[in-house]
Amino acid sequence: MSGKLVFILAFCSARAIAEIEIIESPPLTNWGEWYNYEGCPYASYVYGFQLRVHEFLDFSVTDDTALNSLYLLCSTPDARRAGYEIFVPDAHTPPLTMISSKVGLYGDLRREWQCSSPRFAIGFELRVLEPQGVSWDDVAASNLILHCGYGESLLEFATLDDTALNNVRMGCCDPV
User: Fold this and answer.
1) Buried b or exposed e, range 151-174, using 16+ CB within 10 angstroms
2) Domain ranges of the chain
């Protein structure tokens, strides 16, 4: 089962790990194994993401893997607030840390998506294509929507047997 990834990441700081509640996507596919838990550094939280996507070209490609990597961007509330107060509400915040429990090999790295300053992620949705059957290529996960505070949602649209990312588990906690 090479090339199959399942991620476990954290929305919140690793120091608060005892207080973390794991939230996960419904397991529509499960062709992989869970990798090590990786959390944001102490007092930092997820505020954005970046995807590596193996783009669907056409049906002549016999092994599309779709979403290969998910990177979560971590920052502290002070850094996010400084960007908001000094610059503008939608100022780009450079990540203090990018986390990803395992990185796939195929596809192109897409742009970073960030919650508006000073907001942080509060939930996610994973788009997963169900198993396609014997004659078709299975791709599993193909997109992620990250939910930020105040109703904001971030998503990147990405357009048959190796799969890459299949499921996501994320830790969720109260801000420290």
Assistant:
1) eeebbbebebbbbbbbbbbbbbbe
2) 5-172
The type of residue at 102 is K
144 is written with which tokens?
A: 């992620």
> What is the pTM for the complete model shown?
0.66
Residue length, the chain?
176
- List, for residues 129-139, the tens digit of each pLDDT value: 665 556 565 56
Q: CATH fold of 5-172, please?
A: Vitelline Membrane Outer Layer Protein I, subunit A (2.100.10)
Residues 6+ apart with CB under 8 A from 124: 23, 25, 144, 145, 146, 147, 168, 170
Say which residues have a Cβ less than 8 Å from residue 78's Cβ, sequence separation at least 6.
none
